């Protein structure tokens, strides 16, 4: 049986969120470095940052609402699933 | 950073135009982005109606929230990247040269320069309902050489740009002609 605790997924989520932040910063520095930081690009940047903050905030609120135990294991693979399949088919 | 630093503006040079693509050409990407926002909501409603017991499991809810959050981060990043690629395409027209800066991807940019006195022909193309009504189109600047052509894609007021480029080209050619006469004498 292969199972991993749920907090591993949360760590993976945080890592991917960090990658997203890095690319966001790269995009922003592209705008600054090419003299393209005008009112339009500033408004779009604020919109993207605001939306990302909303998504992050919403995620944490929803996770708090679920109230899950992060140490609980999530079974990824169990050999009994295949055995049960054969038992059901009567093979 | 200012445009003058970006183009390494010369002392006698004056920036006449900083052109970008018309904003309406970004609209299809905005509509696509709005469509992508609705996808997780549609999937959630589908699962809620087809597999209501599956949705009620805590583990599934947590994984669904994390996946949904990553998906929204992804589409926000996609939208911002597409905007940066769209916005970084610019054409700087000075009284001395044209600088064409085209961004093809996040890490791919082409910069071309053309002296105004080398311009042989300027052509504008306005095709379609939206370009005609909203006055945007393509301006192609040709030189005597086959290699060097600069194309302004989807710029506003292309006919006005064409007339100004021809005017600037004449003035620059006169300036260079006078300069040559002075050096010869």
Structure description:
Chain A: The chain crosses the membrane at residues 7-30, 42-63. Chain A: Keywords: Membrane, Transmembrane, Transmembrane helix. The complex is a heterodimer of chains A (91) and B (185). With 91 residues, chain A is mainly α. Chain A has one domain. Chain A has three helices and two strands. Chain A has a two-stranded antiparallel ribbon with strand order 1-2. The radius of gyration of chain A is 22 Å and the shape is elongated. Chain A starts with a strand and ends with a helix. By secondary structure, chain B is an alpha+beta fold. Chain B has two domains: 14-21 and 91-184, PH-domain like (Roll); 28-85. Chain B contains six helices and seven strands, in the order αβαααββββαββα. Chain B has helices at 3-6, 27-50, 52-56, 58-87, 129-134, 158-184; strands at 15-20, 90-94, 97-105, 108-115, 119-125, 136-143, 149-156. In chain B, the strands form two sheets. Chain B has a four-stranded antiparallel beta sheet with strand order 1-2-3-4. In chain B, strands 5-6-7 form a three-stranded antiparallel beta sheet. In chain B, a hairpin with a 2-residue loop joins strand 3 and strand 4. Chain B is elongated. At the A-B interface, helix 1 and helix 2 of A face helix 1 and helix 4 of B.
């Amino acid at each position: 049986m292969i199972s991993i605790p749920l907090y591993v997924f949360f760590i993976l989520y945080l890592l991917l969120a960090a990658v997203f932040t890095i690319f966001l910063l790269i995009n922003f520095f592209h705008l600054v470095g090419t003299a393209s930081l005008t009112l339009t690009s500033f408004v779009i940047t604020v919109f993207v940052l605001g939306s990302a903050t909303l998504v992050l905030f919403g995620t944490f609120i929803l996770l708090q609402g679920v109230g899950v135990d992060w140490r609980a294991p999530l079974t990824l693979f169990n050999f009994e699933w295949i055995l049960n399949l054969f038992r059901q088919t009567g093979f | 950073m200012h445009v003058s630093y970006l183009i390494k503006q010369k002392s006698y040079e004056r920036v006449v135009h900083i052109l970008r693509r018309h904003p309406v050409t970004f609209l299809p990407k905005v509509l696509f982005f709005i469509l992508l926002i609705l996808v997780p909501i549609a999937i959630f409603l589908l699962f809620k109606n087809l597999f209501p017991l599956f949705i009620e499991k805590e583990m599934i809810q947590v994984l669904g929230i994390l996946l949904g959050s990553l998906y929204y981060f992804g589409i926000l990043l996609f939208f911002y990247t597409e905007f940066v690629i769209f916005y970084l395409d610019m054409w700087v027209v000075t009284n001395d040269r044209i600088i064409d800066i085209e961004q093809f991807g996040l890490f791919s940019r082409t910069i071309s320069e053309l002296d105004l006195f080398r311009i042989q022909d300027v052509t504008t193309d306005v095709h379609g309902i939206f370009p005609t009504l909203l006055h945007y189109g393509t301006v192609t600047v040709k030189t005597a050489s086959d290699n060097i052509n600069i194309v302004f894609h989807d710029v506003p007021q292309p006919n006005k740009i064409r007339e100004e480029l021809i005017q600037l080209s004449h003035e620059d050619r006169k300036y260079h002609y006078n300069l040559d006469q002075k050096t010869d004498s």
